[in-house]
Structure formats: structure tokens, C-alpha cells
Design a protein that fits this description.
With 135 residues, this protein is α/β, with parallel strands linked by helices. The protein has a single domain, classed as Nucleoside Triphosphate Pyrophosphohydrolase (Alpha-Beta Complex), CATH 3.90.79. 19% of the residues lie in helices and 37% in strands. One of its GO terms (molecular function) is hydrolase activity. Its cofactor is Mg(2+). This is Hydrolase, NUDIX family. Keywords: Hydrolase.
Length: 135
């Protein structure tokens, strides 16, 4: 069975990107593993609501590809949420150790497995040109 996950990028009103700490030494974007029978998009929406109590709509897939974590190949799906509603709330404190908004990705440590995503984002103006509207 293919291992797949979905992650979500979204901004606050100050144009900062939401990240969370789900590993001891690295930060990540909200999201998680797909459940059986679930699409990548459904996974992204479910994980945001479960982890952070934020409902997202108008998602655009901005990057998809194989990523390697601990010698395991995963198919990663990364979405940008154009609409969000709710107050960011840590719903799973046993799983997620912190949440913050950052201006630049260099501010924190991310897993080296995310390098293909960051390579894409470095070549693209997508994040500069798009905003998340909060209700």
C-alpha cells in the first residue's frame, strides 16, 4: 500500500505561515496521513480540523511528489488554503508540541525530507501572490 500524506500551508493576516511542531527537532505544516478510502484533499481538510480546530476551504494543491523520511518514500500532497475559519487551537497536545506563525522558513528547522517542496517554493512566487482569508 502506498504511503500518502497531506499538509496545508496557510497564512495569517500578517502574511506569516502556520507551522507546528510534531517531532522533537523539526517543525512541519499541519496535516497527516491519509486514511483508507480518503482523498488527499479530504485528508488535508480533516487534519486541519482535528489538529488545530480550523476549517479550511478553497484549497489549491501547490506541490505533489515523492518525499523520503527515514528511508521511507511517501507521496506528499501540499495544499494552500485560501479560506480559513476558526481560532488556531492545539487539539492534540500529546501529538503536537507547538504551533506558531513564521515569516521565513529559515526561522526554524524542517525535516530534510521536505527539500523538494522548499526547492519548488523558492522558484515560485505562489506564496507571495496568495493570501488566506480568515472569517
Amino acid at each position: 500500500m502506498k504511503k500518502e500524506f497531506s499538509r496545508v500551508l496557510l497564512k495569517n493576516q500578517s502574511d506569516e505561515i502556520l507551522i507546528l511542531k510534531d517531532r522533537p527537532d523539526t517543525w512541519n505544516f499541519p496535516g497527516g496521513k491519509q486514511e483508507l478510502g480518503e482523498s488527499a484533499l479530504e485528508c488535508a481538510i480533516r487534519e486541519m480540523k482535528e489538529e488545530l480546530a480550523v476549517e479550511i476551504t478553497e484549497l489549491e494543491e501547490i506541490f505533489t511528489g515523492p518525499l523520503v523520511f527515514d528511508s521511507i518514500v511517501w507521496q506528499g500532497h501540499f495544499y494552500f488554503a485560501k479560506q480559513a475559519q476558526g481560532k488556531v487551537t492545539l487539539n492534540e497536545p500529546n501529538k503536537i508540541k507547538g504551533v506558531q506563525f513564521i515569516k521565513r522558513f529559515e526561522e526554524v528547522n524542517f525535516s530534510p525530507g521536505l527539500a523538494p517542496l522548499f526547492d519548488y517554493l523558492a522558484r515560485s512566487d505562489y506564496l507571495k501572490l496568495n493570501k488566506t482569508n480568515w472569517k
